[in-house]
Specification:
The complex is a heterodimer of chains A (218) and B (114).
Chain A: H1 17-35, H2 50-59, E1 71-76, E2 78-82, E3 89-94, E4 101-112, E5 120-127, E6 137-145, E7 149-154, E8 167-176, E9 200-207, H3 212-217
Antiparallel strand pairs in A: 1-9, 2-3, 3-8, 4-7, 4-9, 5-6, 5-8
Chain B: E1 12-14, E2 17-19, H1 20-23, E3 29-31, E4 34-36, E5 39-41, H2 58-68, E6 79-92, E7 98-113
Antiparallel strand pairs in B: 1-5, 2-4, 3-6, 6-7
The chains are: A alpha+beta (218), B mainly beta (114).
């Protein structure tokens, strides 16, 4: 307690500066966690490569406004299995979108290597939940890639419900377009799937309107 | 609202800048580097009750004088936030995803007497 001075609000003794600072820092932690609807600070187990992070943030639309209480999420792919062929692989994303939020915008960002031989047709499937037959997957989108570099491929947000476990698996399946005489040999890799240029999802969510589910059912 | 001088007894806004480095949270909060944790404190004598702080106008000044001359103060009045703004945060969630969100009403900008 600071000798002599009195709290202007309650008339009680005021805190010594260090004690007041410690109290303010504790209040700040509580206020931030409450504002983010978190019970505790996240423990970062595998930090992202700084270059990948910087590039992804730069890719986000500049000045894109997040709707009130909405979120914009960048989720980097964890590659589960990567076949030796040109660019077919399974990308796994760990998403913890709160139940109270509704996904309304989704894009998959892929970095195509300069080895791209002309035009490629890329199909993006979503793996079904584990508990069903392994082969169940749903076609989400089909795109044609004609140039190397970054591509932002729009996905139907309705098709991206992720499992209870918060895991979303996308299967990339690509093939050269017919009559493409410069087709790459089957073993040449075409997509950058690891390191700083790994694929990532860009998602936007906003809070569900109260009673939205009921309205839809009606 | 004036920000409080150390010994200001009347309702004002106390400013505290919190650096996330000081919280040890710079590893998961990417931007900004810190934020203003302001709060309202100070006394609200009867003639200040209902005064909106910086927005006080001539009318409310006269109204305050009338109140001050009223021997029966109308209950107690508290020093509360009258204007707040959101805080835009960029942080890593538990799965390592980068999340950008605006947390509403995070920063107190003005205080006044209820």
């Amino acid at each position: 307690q600071r000798a002599g001075s009195v709290c202007p609000s309650c008339g009680g003794p005021t805190l010594a500066p260090q004690a007041e600072r410690a109290l303010v820092l504790e209040l700040a932690k509580q206020q931030i966690l409450k504002g983010l609807h978190l019970t505790g600070r996240p423990i970062i187990t595998h930090p992202l490569p700084q270059a990948a992070l910087t590039r992804a943030l730069r890719r986000l639309q500049r000045g894109s406004v997040v709707p009130a209480n909405g979120e914009q999420v960048i989720s980097f792919a964890a590659i589960t299995d990567f076949s030796a062929s040109t660019c077919s692989s399974t990308l796994t994303f760990y998403l913890s979108t709160p139940r109270s939020h509704h996904l309304y915008h989704a894009r998959l960002w892929l970095h195509v290597l300069p080895t791209l031989p002309g035009t490629l047709s890329l199909r993006i499937f979503r793996w079904g939940p584990r508990r069903r037959r392994r082969g169940s997957h749903v076609l989400l989108a089909e795109h044609q890639l004609t140039a190397p570099g970054w591509h932002a491929l729009t996905l139907p947000s309705s098709g991206l419900r992720h499992e209870e476990s918060g895991v979303l698996r996308l299967q990339l399946d690509c093939r050269p377009l017919e009559g493409n005489s410069t087709a790459a040999p089957q073993t040449q890799q075409l997509l950058d799937t690891a390191g700083e240029q790994r694929p990532f999802l860009e998602l936007k969510t906003r809070p569900k309107e109260p009673g939205a589910g009921r309205a839809r059912r009606r | 609202t004036p920000s409080c001088e150390p010994e200001t007894p009347l309702c004002c806004r106390r400013d505290h800048y919190v650096d996330f480095q000081e919280l040890g949270w710079r590893d998961w909060i990417l931007q900004p580097e810190g934020y203003q944790l302001n709060y309202c404190s100070g006394q609200c004598p009867p003639h200040l009750a209902g005064s909106p702080g910086i927005a006080a106008s001539f009318h409310s000044a006269v109204f305050s004088l009338l109140k001050a001359n009223n021997p029966w103060p109308l209950g107690t009045s508290c020093c509360v936030p009258t204007a707040r703004r959101p805080l835009s945060l960029l942080y890593l969630d538990r799965d390592g995803n980068v999340v950008k969100t605006d947390v509403p009403d995070m920063v107190v900008e003005a205080c006044g007497c209820s």
